[in-house]
Design a protein that fits this description.
Elements: H1 7-53, H2 59-97, H3 117-137, H4 139-175, H5 177-192, H6 196-232, H7 237-249, H8 254-268, H9 271-286, H10 288-296, H11 304-318, H12 322-341
Helix pairs in contact: 1-4, 1-6, 2-4, 2-7, 6-7, 6-8, 6-9, 6-10, 6-12, 7-8, 8-9, 11-12
Length: about 350
């Protein structure tokens, strides 16, 4: 039966849309931080719950200590990694400006490496010999690109601040978890109908599996790699660790991205420390084979291509924090899609 819509009802809809749009633009600068806070709250809640049981009625003390220790564990490694990137970049830019950029000459032993020894030695030797001349000839271009790199590093620092803010918000969410879960369940009931609780639980399990099985493992590998890079005195240790982090998230074996670091170590350090460093890198690169079964349990149900697209797309859209958020959001949407396709008798009332 047709029903005529009055002008008053149309005006109500328009006013409502305007208010929703206005609210969106007001909270837009905080949306990414809030989304990451929700993800952290969902992922960390089992640990938070066990922690709070030890404090009984002293909930405020428990929350304060959880926030303190969580901040130390989560953010000090990121601080040192980002600090290393900033420091190395500034030093390189200053060396270029002062015409003092130097690249160490390769060791003669590199020539004896099978297959790649001779060409690698030649390319490295040419770069080390002509680095200063190249920097002088292309100074303007290098400084221009370097300035852009520093700007991007500023974005990394901003992302670190966003991580801290998100973690604090996540603790607040977990502290009020009962009321938060009730409200979210009521909202999803309005949007999705009878399947709301099932989809909420499925989304929760997907978030936890991706965070524990991929992001946490990648962070552990990257930080362990960073420790090794700093111990051997590798230049730009933070940048190398960041590459390990990114490749570990997109499921490229971390050991492959550590090979250049091993090559540099053998060329700039004594054989014994270099061998120890190489063995350490191999152990770090293979650590995911041990960590994933421990943290993931039943295994990850999300295809790696979804994680890859979510990681790269998220980083291009939101920067370094998108590296984490993108993979999780896409994984959750993939699970909802699979749920919808494989459940023909169930309707999601959008």
């Amino acid at each position: 039966m047709n029903k005529n819509i009055s002008i008053t009802e149309i005006l109500k809809i328009i006013v409502l849309l305007l208010m929703v749009t206005w609210c969106f633009f007001i909270v837009r600068p905080f949306l990414l931080a809030i989304l990451w806070a929700i993800i952290l709250a969902v992922a960390l809640y089992p640990l938070f719950e066990k922690w709070m049981k030890k404090f009984g009625k002293n909930r405020k003390t428990g929350v304060s200590l959880f926030t303190l220790f969580g901040s130390i564990i989560l953010f000090i490694p990121l601080y040192f990694m980002i600090g290393s990137i900033v420091e190395n970049t500034k030093v390189t830019i200053n060396q270029i400006q002062n015409h003092s950029l130097q690249i160490p000459q390769p060791e003669d032993s590199i020539k004896d490496w099978p297959l790649i020894g001779e060409p690698l030695y030649k390319e490295w030797d040419d770069l080390a010999t002509n680095a200063r001349e190249y920097a002088v000839l292309h100074e303007d271009l290098i400084l221009e690109k370097g300035s852009g790199l520093i700007t991007n590093i500023g974005g990394f620092i901003g992302s670190l601040i966003t991580f801290i803010i998100s973690f604090l918000i996540a603790v607040l969410f977990m502290y009020h978890s009962d009321s938060g879960y009730k409200i979210s369940k009521q909202l999803m009931q309005k949007l999705l109908g009878d399947q709301s609780e099932e989809i909420i639980n499925m989304s929760r399990d997907t978030i936890r599996s991706v965070v524990k099985g991929i992001l946490l493992v990648a962070l552990i590998q990257a930080f362990l790699a960073f420790i090794g890079f700093k111990a051997i005195g590798l230049p730009a240790a933070g940048i190398f660790a960041l590459v390990v982090l990114i490749t570990a998230i997109v499921q490229i074996p971390a050991i492959l991205t550590m090979i250049p670091a091993i090559i540099i170590a053998f060329s700039t350090s004594d054989p014994t420390p270099a061998i120890i460093f190489a063995i350490y890198c191999v152990l770090v690169g293979l650590a995911d084979n041990v960590l994933k079964p421990l943290l993931l349990g039943k295994g990850l149900q999300t295809p790696m291509i979804i994680i890859l697209i979510g990681t790269i797309g998220g980083m291009l859209l939101h920067g370094i924090i998108g590296l984490f958020v993108g993979a999780i959001v896409l994984a959750v949407m993939h699970r909802i899609y699979i749920y919808w396709v494989t459940s023909p008798d169930k309707k999601i009332n959008l």
